[in-house]
UniProtKB/TrEMBL annotation:
GO annotations of cellular component type: mitochondrion
Name of this protein: T cell activation inhibitor, mitochondrial
Pfam families: DUF4460 (PF14687), DUF4461 (PF14688)
Domain DUF4461 span(s) in chain numbering: 188-491
Domain DUF4460: 24-133
PANTHER family the record matches: T-CELL ACTIVATION INHIBITOR, MITOCHONDRIAL
Domain of life of the source: Eukaryota
């Protein structure tokens, strides 16, 4: 694979003449993790224990970043929606020539960047460059420099510049070798990490217990008072933050009881914006004032007509495409407003309704599909549902669905079996270690959770985890309320 010249220049660090061509292999997932170790070291939530706001922002941004990196490695991937991320980056020294924003007294700075790349290598380089971290080690991970076809170039001896340690002391620049060594020392085992963090987690969990009881009480009272189906949160806010949101909703229920009667039987989700979700749930933006929330509850009856249109469009598309079930999967798709979801359905329906696709009326019954506006080619997800771009060519869509139908049915069957096994293993693991709760992040797949639980059940004994909350995630962390997060592919 030949890299773009912009990437080549960064990898070469201007050490080769412009006429030379660099040949590099694509980064693997493991390579990307290794290359990003200095970045993980600079933003890891464990280093922000005294700064809960910055810690939470880094935790949420890391989850979104991990999801972005995983999607880049999926087969059939073409492109991703640009993702805006913000991290608080800690540094030992300030370099005035590189810093995007001034340091605060806490010794860290905020860095924001947008990921628009289509491959792991470009993504890794963009992340490191955005945070002013060295990219020298990426050249090593990405392979050796290819020998140029020009014979005269064979006589050139390419040796990376190795500066004396005094250079870094004098200039204030970071030594990439020292930085990489520090990041590599972060490679920990599950047992050692639990040994080091168990007491901290126990203390935080104990301190959070009164708030956890208060949260359960508030949730139960509001659900009963407003006759709600459920109350949920889109992001992993802390217990105190969630209690504050429920107190706000409780005050609104006292101030505007008539408007909140419209929420009867619905699910309320605290999220980043207010409205109605694609699945018909009430979305309350945590940054909005009570006036905005009141308007949403008042408008709920008017959403009924739009919901009926959404259901009608789903049925019409299903009829055209052989009876396949058309829907929106909240766990796998970005949070869409009902209006946005209707627009996606309407665009796709107008594209396929006049194509007269020769599907048998019931040939795809029992299968599932979702629509994505930022994808360019149809894709069969590992869980068995079709992911279809709204701009997909109808003829190509027909061929893809017919040829993949049997494979989709097999994956759906394995999905059902895996979900049963996952539930069984979670229960067994929680009982073995006497955990108060064992759960996973939404970005952790069913297969990954099964793998992790099997290793927990088969592995060696761990430190006393009785009464703890254990979350299977993608990185190590102690949450502000005492939940222990461990990566699903943890090392012994």
């Amino acid at each position: 694979m030949f890299c773009r010249w912009g990437t080549v220049r960064r990898l070469c660090l201007n050490k080769l003449p412009l006429q030379h061509v660099i040949q590099a292999r694509a980064l693997s997932g493991a390579d990307a993790v290794n290359a990003l170790r200095p970045f993980y070291f600079a933003v890891h939530p464990d280093f922000f224990g005294q700064h809960p706001r910055e810690r939470e922002i880094n935790e949420n941004s890391l989850k979104r970043l991990n999801g972005y990196l995983e999607n880049l490695q999926k087969p059939g991937f073409r492109s991703l929606k640009p993702t805006r991320l913000t991290f608080y980056v800690r540094e030992k020294e300030q370099n005035p020539s590189n810093v995007q924003e001034p340091f605060g007294s806490s010794g860290f700075r905020a860095v924001s960047f947008t990921l628009r790349t289509r491959d792991l290598l470009s993504t890794v380089l963009d992340i490191l460059n955005s945070c002013n971290l060295s990219t020298d080690h990426v050249q090593i991970l990405n392979g050796k420099v290819a020998t140029p076809s020009n014979q005269s170039a064979e006589r050139i001896f390419h040796r990376p510049i190795k500066w004396d340690k005094t250079y870094y002391s004098f200039t204030g620049f970071k030594d990439p070798e020292e930085e990489l060594e520090q990041a590599q020392r972060m490679e920990t085992t599950l047992s050692s990490w639990l040994d080091s963090n168990e007491q901290s987690a126990e203390k935080k969990l104990k301190n959070s217990l009164p708030l956890r009881k208060e949260l359960d009480r508030l949730k139960g009272e509001l659900s009963h008072q407003l006759q709600l189906s459920d109350i949920r949160w889109q992001r992993s806010w802390g217990i105190a933050h969630r209690c504050s949101q429920l107190h706000s909703l409780s005050r609104l229920a006292q101030q505007s009881p008539e408007a909140l009667r419209n929420a009867k039987g619905r699910t309320v989700i605290f999220t980043d914006r207010s409205g109605m979700s694609a699945t018909g749930h009430v979305m309350l933006g945590t940054m909005d004032v009570h006036h905005h929330w009141t308007k949403i509850f008042e408008r709920l009856p008017s959403y009924s007509a739009l919901q009926k249109k959404v259901l009608l469009l789903e049925d019409r598309i299903s009829h055209i495409l052989g009876g396949i079930q058309v829907g929106y999967i909240e766990e796998l798709q970005p949070m869409l407003m009902l209006e946005e979801y209707y627009s996606v359905l309407d665009s796709f329906y107008n594209r396929v309704r006049n194509s007269r696709l020769p599907f048998h009326p019931h040939s795809l019954r029992g299968l599932q599909m979702i629509l994505e506006s930022d994808r360019y080619a149809p894709y069969l997800h590992e869980l068995g549902h079709f992911i279809i771009p709204t701009t997909c060519d109808p003829a190509a869509l027909q061929w893809f669905m017919i040829t993949k139908a049997q494979q989709a049915r097999e994956k759906l069957k394995r999905k059902e079996e895996s979900m049963v096994l996952e539930k069984k293993l979670i229960k067994a693991s929680a009982e073995k270690f006497r955990l108060q709760r064992l759960y996973k992040e939404p970005s952790v797949s069913c297969v990954q959770m099964i793998h992790s639980c099997n290793r927990l059940l088969e592995g060696e004994s761990l430190p006393n985890l009785q009464g703890m909350h254990l979350c299977i995630s993608h990185f190590y962390s102690v949450m502000q309320d005492g939940d222990l997060c461990i990566p699903w592919n943890w090392k012994h």
